Each structure stands twice: as structure tokens, then as C-alpha cells.
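From the pipeline queue, job 12 of 40. The input is one protein chain; the requested action is below.

Action: predict structure.
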Amino acid sequence: MLREPIVHFVALGALLFAANALFAPKGAPPTPAKPTVVRTTIVVPKELSGDVEKKKWIDEEVLFREGLARGLDEDDPKIKQRVASNMQRVLEGAIVLPKATEAELRAFFEANAARWATSELYDFTNVFVADSDPKRAAELLAQLTGGADPNGLGDTFSGGRRYRRRALADLSEAFGTEFVAGFAEQAPGTWAIHRSRHGLHVIRVDRRTPAEPPSFDAARGEIEMAFDEKRKNEQLAAAIAELRRKYAVE
């Protein structure tokens, strides 16, 4: 038996196994590196024209693939965000929405009617006091109340002198909340002093247009768009939730 080659092979294997067990470092075996498969064939798109454009595209493709092979994408938040954004677009592109029924649109409208209600609107004339001097504003108020022509009075204001069909919410955003205080109570045709973030204003309310209740027929196009956007967001969230099932989050 000592002359048999198979015996020699088994004995040598046993010795190598024993030596490895004796001298190998203790602890868990190292985790094998994640294999990165990099395609070595580059197919140039037909739409590329010109040697310079082709060279630039090929160089970029080579650098991209080599970067992936060396793991340069793993810890870069910008690359992660870009890939995640592209994946979201893939999911969005796969969403197919059936045409909304009349009942679905009306139910959505009833649940969100305030979005299509028309606010009370104001037309007004603005005489601006740039230096915010209360005395000067009071003098202008007296002149205007007495019938003076507002044209030519006060200082130049970048927003202009006459405003049409403005909602209080929009005016509050543009001028500040203090500016719209008392607007709703001011009678049309009267002058009053209002303060904004820009200075003082002597304001005449010229016209008040009452708010109108929401109309399904008038806003139908907007309602359909809003309802489709809602359904699309719901399906996208469901698709992402389904993908999350593949991962253990710790």
C-alpha cells in the first residue's frame, strides 16, 4: 500500500489540511469580496456622429465601468441619489392609469372642494410712502379723502399703483400679514393707511368681488389632473413598498 500513488495523495492532503488548521488565523473566515461584473464590450450608439463625440462617449463609458469595477460608486451619495432617481423614473414609467370614472372624479372633488373655491378678490389703488413717515402718510390720507387725484402723489412703488383681482392670501405673501389687516372691513371707495414690509401705503379699496363656491364643471380639467397625480403617487408608493420587501432593514 505504501507504493500506491493514491495513498501518497491522501496523506499529502491530510498534512496540508492539518497545517492550515494549525497556522491559519483564528476567527471567522473573511467575507469574500462582492464580485463586480464589468462588460468588456462597448457598443457605440448609432446616433453618435463625429470622431470627437464618439471618443468622448467611449472614454466616459470606460471610466464609468472601471469606476464600478473598483467600487467607487458604493460610498458616493450623489451617485446613490442619481441611481435612485433613475429607478424611480423606471417605476413611474411602468404605471398605467385607467381612465377615471365620473363617480371617482366627483368623489375626489367633493373631498377636496376647497382647492377649487374662488377666494374673495380685491381691486385697490396704492399710494406709497417709502420712508414710512406716519405724519406724511396722514397728510396724504387727508388729501386723498378730500378728493385729490392719487396719480402723482406718494412715492414710486415697484409693484405699481393699481391692483386688480387680488386675493388676501396673495397680498399677505407679497406685503406681509400686517398689510391685509382691515382689508375685509374697509368699505369700497374709502382710503386707509396700511403698513407692509416695504413701508406705509394709503390704500383705497375700489372693488370687492365675492368668493364663489367651487364648480365641478368649471374645474373638471384640473380635477382630472389632480386625481391622476394622486393615483400615480399611490401606485409609486406601493411599488417602492413592494421592492422594500426584498430587503431587511436593521
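Job complete. The beta strands are 121-129, 162-167, 191-195, 200-209.
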